[in-house]
């Protein structure tokens, strides 16, 4: 479980996050949703420590990450797996080396065990035949899947996904979403997904936090999102004709 | 001043939260190949022509019959060891290796590869920059030695083949009144230049923000700043170590 208390962040005069609090539950796919530029990715980066918030605290299973020393911070970070928007695969390494990288750096596993684990993870994301390919030879969806394999190779307790289906076709998006959801339940990990894709919201969102202009405006389940009664959330959810007709029914 | 302060903090960050020796050992070896071995041909080519041209131009300026011919190779030797090999090659090294370092790290920054390292609990600056710095400190002095040798050889070949100076005179001039400290001075310069080029280039790349355009700008800034740093430190080292 991850808990955040009163997270605020400004860039110059611009307040990007305004006292956001909430809980992200273990074994569930927690979604942070909102329009582009509302501060979702900044919030995610504050949670993982890539951006230092101006105020507020982040707790990883009762461990205060914000006030942790370097040792504890490194320890917590080594329990984190993260899927970045563009995959963030290392260009100079092939798929197998990319996925093996966290094991090379963070563990003392023998090479044979590492290879076995890497191939298991690649098989899990359906890319066992792409092990020797370089990132430049992969499609957008394949890069995301390799990113997921790399994120889970070290058996993380926390999985973060920043816009996992941006730039992907709807079919591949659903495939990635399902993979994230399956992995979350399979390994009972705390997953936070930042997205503005309504397919993800309706498909895998178990706990949803809606961010509007840097503030948390609504929090609830997938079932409640259609009947929240919050105008800003309705404007976000029922933006196209299909969704509007769904609401009318 | 803000940039300089950030640069000093960046240098400090290279030596904290380091990974295991084994990790760095492999990375340093890879970098030695990338930035050292793969620069050897260019360095040899440039240095050979530098030596050849210096020989021809020195001979062209030697108009007095009272000056013996071996002075030509003596001048080539002094110019090569004191300035051409360490400094001119440093400018070429900044253009080839420095730009590659800044571009590579800058691209890693904008494609979130550096963020990925940080999320894994790895000190990205130490992991990415320290091997490049160590490889530069090892390889650049070697490149300077190779450059010095090639420049003197280039001068010898051109001088002998064109009849500017006889091989015997050339060798005599090379050995005449030789001060070994010039070699020490060249190697000290090469270590300082290697440090400046690698750290400045990596620093510029590491703090890149934006997209491909900004990576290009960072690369240009890396080369420009490195060249300025080379020239300034060249002067200060000459004042410090050669001024009697």
Protein model, in words:
The complex is a heterodimer of chains A (249) and B (244). Chain A has helices spanning 40-48, 70-77, 95-106, 111-124, 140-152, 170-187, 198-204, 231-237, 241-248; strands at 2-11, 14-24, 29-33, 55-60, 63-64, 80-83, 158-162, 190-195, 207-212, 215-220. In chain A, 39% of the residues lie in helices and 24% in strands. Chain A is built from 9 helices and 10 strands. In chain A, strand 9 (207-212) and strand 10 (215-220) form a beta hairpin. Chain A has a domain at 80-155. The mean pLDDT of chain A is 89. With 249 residues, chain A is α/β, with parallel strands linked by helices. Chain B has one domain (19-241). Chain B is elongated, with a radius of gyration of 21 Å. In chain B, helix 3 (40-61) packs across helix 6. Helix content of chain B is 83%, strand content 0%. Chain B starts with a helix and ends with a helix. Chain B is mostly helical and 244 residues long. At the A-B interface, helix 2 and helix 3 of A face helix 5 of B.
* Low-confidence residue ranges of chain B: none
Structural class of chain B: mainly alpha
Mean pLDDT figure of chain A: 89
Largest sheet composition of chain B: none
Shape annotation of chain A: globular
Query: How do the helices and strands follow one another from N- to C-terminus of chain B?
Result: HHHHHHHHH
What sequence of helices (H) and strands (E) makes up the elements of chain A? Answer: EEEHEEHEHHHEHEHEEHH
Shape of chain B: elongated
Strand content of chain A: 15-25%
Helix-residue proportion of chain B: over 70%
| Major beta sheet, strand line-up of chain A | 6-7-8-3-9-10
Query: What is the CA-based Rg of chain B, rounded?
Result: 21 Å
Defining key terms:
A: 249 residues, alpha/beta, 6-stranded mixed beta sheet, 4-stranded antiparallel beta sheet, B: 244 residues, mainly alpha, 9 helices
